[in-house]
Write a structure and sequence with these properties.
DNA-binding protein, YceD, five-stranded mixed beta sheet, alpha+beta
Length: 174
Amino acid sequence: MSAHELSRLVKLRAIKHEPVVVEADEAERAALAARFGITTIDSLRAEVALDPDGQRVAATGMLAASITQPCAISGEDFPVAIDEELDFVFVPASESEVAVEGEEIELEREDLDEIEYRGDSFDLGEAIAQSLALAIDPYAEGPNADAARERAGIVTEDTPSGPLAEALAALKKN
């Protein structure tokens, strides 16, 4: 298993009944920010309850992060708070379910949040990192997005356009 920026290996036999707390240190946060293309991750904490059922392990909990990312419009950095519920299942990788290239696979709803693992442990940290990645809005707009649009002359769906709108704008100026 390769090491990830936020690697927290959990051995199946060592699972306890109390929640697992994962907090990223400064180096891990910096590496994850670079991986996700955001400016900084100021804090990242998850609390996850693990519920084993044979080789399957249900994981539920909360992820809280404070990040700084660039506005999709202005490029200016702005802070974002992320609070996400975590709900996925670690399942052993099945050699018999390997897809043939080009073969279409249908997934059921309960299959969508399954994370495969090999051996006797899984990487809870990487699952948390992937959950954070999915929670980051790549098109997030900061507080100065509208002003940046206006400076650039970008027309939005809310901005009237066309000859009639131009005539009305000229009348408003007078």
